[in-house]
Amino acid sequence: MANHKSAVKKDKQDIVRRDRNRQHRSKMRTQIKRFRQLLEAGDAAGARGMLLETLSLVDRTARHGVIHANAASRTKSRLTKAVARLEASA
């Protein structure tokens, strides 16, 4: 337990930030899972339509500092390549 007033405030801020980060991360992961379900189903048109929305959400999560910018770029690249592979095979 914190003994100083500033440490108590920092603990409260950490709790709020952790909850907020958890919400952003969860939302992003859920969106990516839905996107991958479309890929597995072979729905190229649906995946292409959802791609921009998913990439935007990944960017927003990185902008909020929840994930590193390089991790966001890597994720976006992999998702885009997956759509390209699906469209090439279809």
Top-tier CATH class: Mainly Alpha
What fraction, in percent, of the residue positions are helical? over 70%
Compute the average pLDDT. 96
The parts where pLDDT drops under 50 for at least 5 residues are: none
- Overall outline: elongated
- Radius of gyration (CA) equals 18 Å
Examine the secondary-structure arrangement and name the CATH architecture.
Up-down Bundle
Structural class computed from helices and strand pairing: mainly alpha
* Beta-strand share of residues: under 5%
Order of helices and strands: HHH
Provide structural commentary.
The protein has a single domain (11-89), classed as Methane Monooxygenase Hydroxylase, Chain G, domain 1. The protein is built from 3 helices and no strands. The longest helix has 37 residues, at 5-41. The protein is mainly alpha-helical and 90 residues long. The chain has helices spanning 5-41, 44-63, 69-89.
Entry keywords:
90 residues; mainly alpha; Methane Monooxygenase Hydroxylase, Chain G, domain 1; 3 helices
Short account of what is shown:
Helix content is 87%, strand content 0%. The chain is built from 3 helices and no strands.
Q: Would you spell out the secondary-structure blueprint of this structure?
A:
Blueprint: H1 5-41, H2 44-63, H3 69-89
Helix pairs in contact: 1-2, 2-3
